[in-house]
Amino acid sequence: MPRTSVFKNSGFACLTMVLMMMFGTLAGGHGSLAALRGEAAAVFTLGARGDGVGIQSDLNERAGAAYNMVVVARRYLPEENALIQNTLSARAALAGAAGVGEKSDANRALDVAVKDLYDALGNMALSEADSRYPHSLYAEFKSGGDRISHDPYNRGAAEFNKLLSAFPASALGRLTGVKPLDMFE
């Protein structure tokens, strides 16, 4: 019986070709989906125009306004006051949040803490110099929240998630590990 090379075996050649096509499809699909996901995710930090004006910059501004509110509050409340500590803790949680979902949760907690501190300062007899700060700081804080509510990140994330949920992207995403994007709520 003559020996044939494995490379001359038509069955082996067909199997190799099918496997190469499957690998190419998976690799190409993963690359395309990962690139689309990356573009949509970058809007959170870099903004829609890539200018750095995105949700992350607004969160940074809100954290700054929250800290400045604490600076004013420290003139009238002891450091261990729950309102001050809650605001500082919520601010630290936001700074330490790892992903979009965690940042969203931390932002909501900071919103509550700053509102409580602002309300408390509104009921105090502040010096003439300090009396204007809580209102302007709270307006700055809320303005960041308003900008976040109109930021295009969620729209882009929703579009990507919709694409990823449709066939064939849904199958490719599952097979290659491309996950949907978290929404900032």
Could you write a compact summary of the structure shown?
Helix content is 71%, strand content 0%.
Could you characterize what this model shows?
- The protein is mostly helical.
- Among the domains are: 55-149; 152-185, no CATH class.
- Helix content is 71%, strand content 0%.
- It has 7 helices and no strands.
- It has helices at 10-46, 55-73, 82-96, 100-122, 133-149, 153-165, 169-176.
- Helix 1 (10-46) packs antiparallel against helix 6, helix 2 packs antiparallel against helix 3 (82-96) and helix 2 (55-73) packs antiparallel against helix 5 (133-149).
- The longest helix has 37 residues, at 10-46.
- The radius of gyration is 26 Å and the shape is rod-shaped.
Which terms summarize this structure?
185 residues; mainly alpha; rod-shaped; 71% helix
Topology of helices and strands:
Elements: H1 10-46, H2 55-73, H3 82-96, H4 100-122, H5 133-149, H6 153-165, H7 169-176
Helix pairs in contact: 1-6, 1-7, 2-3, 2-4, 2-5, 3-4, 4-5
Order of helices and strands: HHHHHHH
Q: What structural category characterises the helix and strand content?
A: mainly alpha
The mean pLDDT is: 89
Span from first to last CA? 71 Å
Low-confidence stretches: none
How large is the count of helical segments? 7
Shape verdict: rod-shaped
Please state the CA-atom Rg, rounded to the nearest Å. Answer: 26 Å
- Helix percentage range: over 70%
Count of strand segments: 0
